[in-house]
Amino acid sequence: MRSIAFADFLIGLGILFVLEGLMFAASPNWMRKAMKSAMATPDHILRAVGIGSAVVGLILIWVMRRPI
Fold it and tell me: 36 with 28: CB under 8 angstroms?
């Protein structure tokens, strides 16, 4: 039997793949430009954006999962 947390993780991963796939399908040129821009961005800025995104994601999960 799978745990609820693991099922939620797989659902989140699936949503990530769907959104990424839709962005590539809808506008491959824009995604190519975004990747080039990310390659030119310094590591410390990418790291800060990544940490910020992770924190926002964890807060969103906490808000949605807390008992009412």
Answer: no
* Cβ atoms 46, 38 nearer than 8 A: yes
By CB neighbour count within 10 A (0-12 exposed, 13-18 middle, 19+ buried), where does 45 fall? exposed
Given a contact cutoff of 8 angstroms between Cβ atoms, the answer to whether 25 and 18 are in contact is no
Domain ranges of the chain: 4-65
Per-residue pLDDT of the chain (68 residues; tens, 9 = 90+): 567 778 888 998 999 999 999 999 999 999 999 999 999 999 999 999 999 999 998 899 888 888 77
With beta carbons less than 8 A apart as the criterion, state whether 5 and 13 touch: no
Q: What pTM, to 2 d.p., does this model score?
A: 0.70
